[in-house]
């Protein structure tokens, strides 16, 4: 299971989830399938952080698509523009910023151990509060997912997922029992082989563009065929 395949699975299950939310609100089956998407995106964000040659460009790309996606996101889910709920790119952007600050591989924190712990604790709390105040998709739960994958990245595979499962279980209960279906993504992530798979600029951008594009298509269908 390489990065490309995981991206395809995440994108497909996300679109299914959004179809269910927009057109089939009474059918939970689509939403159950959709729970697989976000943990995969969190996992890939962490992998992307460690493999990118330029973290700032990565963050800039996420932020740009967060802005681009907000209009189709609002229209598709709320039929109007507003700040009730912000799209998933904002969640990923905050998560990426958090792990960038937390990462001390190059010894950028020239402080004693206790001070570093305080700084990192503050970063975690601030990023979770920010996600909550801005009402980004998945709120603080999304940031916790990202940080769990970040902090366990150097564990051996079995230990990593044994650690992640109970944390996700506990965090998911703070949302709803329905969110526990997100755990179904973990077997897919466990089979990750560390390879990228097919990669080029067109494919890379296509995965970003697919998010606002499918939301805008869903919105157009919704207003064109209101009985669907």
Structural account:
By secondary structure, the protein is mostly helical. 71% of the residues lie in helices and 0% in strands. Helix 1 runs antiparallel to helix 2 (28-34) and helix 1 packs antiparallel against helix 3. The protein is globular, with a radius of gyration of 18 Å. The model has no long low-confidence stretch (mean pLDDT 91).
Q: Estimate the global geometry from the Cα principal axes.
A: globular
| Category from helices, strands and their pairing | mainly alpha
Q: Quickly count the helices.
A: 10
User: Main beta sheet: strand number and arrangement?
Assistant: none
Task: State the low-pLDDT regions, or none.
Answer: none
Query: How many angstroms separate the termini?
Result: 36 Å
Q: Average pLDDT across residues?
A: 91
Q: Give the H and E element order.
A: HHHHHHHHHH
Instruction: Round the Cα radius of gyration to an integer and report it.
Output: 18 Å
């Amino acid at each position: 299971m390489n990065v490309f395949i995981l991206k395809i699975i995440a994108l497909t299950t996300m679109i299914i989830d959004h179809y269910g939310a927009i057109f089939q609100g009474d059918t939970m089956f689509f939403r159950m399938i959709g729970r697989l998407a976000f943990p995969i995106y969190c996992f890939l964000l962490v992998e992307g952080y460690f493999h990118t040659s330029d973290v700032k460009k990565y963050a800039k790309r996420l932020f740009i698509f967060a802005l681009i996606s907000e209009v189709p996101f609002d229209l598709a889910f709320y039929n109007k523009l507003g700040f009730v709920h912000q799209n998933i790119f904002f969640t990923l952007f905050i998560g990426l910023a958090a792990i960038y600050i937390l990462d001390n591989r190059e010894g950028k924190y020239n402080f004693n151990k206790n001070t570093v712990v305080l700084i990192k604790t503050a970063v975690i709390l601030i990023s979770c509060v920010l996600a909550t105040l801005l009402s980004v998709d998945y709120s603080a739960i999304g940031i916790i997912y990202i940080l769990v994958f970040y902090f366990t990245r150097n564990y051996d595979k079995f230990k990593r997922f044994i650690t992640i499962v109970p944390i996700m279980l506990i965090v998911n209960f703070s949302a709803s029992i329905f969110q526990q279906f997100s755990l179904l993504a973990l077997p897919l992530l466990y089979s990750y082989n560390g390879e990228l798979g097919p990669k080029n600029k067109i494919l890379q951008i296509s995965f970003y563009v697919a998010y606002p594009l499918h939301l805008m298509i869903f919105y157009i269908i919704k207003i064109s065929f209101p009985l669907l």
